[in-house]
Design goal:
Layout (H helix, E strand, L loop, with lengths): L5 E3 L6 E4 L9 E6 L4 E6 L9 E3 L8 E4 L2 E6 L8 E2 L4 E2 L4
């Protein structure tokens, strides 16, 4: 059994959360979807700190980021699958 490096709440989420320290670009990350206890792997293409988000598919400006089944903001700059999703390319819709 492997230790997950990335958690995704549900199969409809398009971002996951890094749950280990020091996830480096080029890592083939072990990912778990907690809602249905399935898993997959994907290559992370940036160094991503613990607690930060990873794009699970290519996201383009204008897309909605979905985490935990909820809208968590608007993508404001394109992010490739495996890329770091954070304040440089994601903005809240609250204001």
């Amino acid at each position: 059994m492997s230790i997950p490096q990335l958690l995704v709440h549900g199969p409809h989420d398009n971002v996951g959360v890094v749950v280990v320290e020091g996830l480096k670009a080029g890592t083939e990350a072990f990912c778990v979807i907690t809602e249905n206890d399935t898993s997959f792997t994907m290559t992370v293409n940036a160094d991503i700190p613990i607690g930060h988000k990873v794009a699970l598919k290519d996201l383009v400006a204008g897309d909605t980021a979905v985490k935990y089944g909820e809208d968590v903001g608007k993508i404001v700059a394109d992010v490739a699958k495996g890329g770091h999703v954070h304040t440089h390319n994601l903005k809240t819709k609250r204001w």
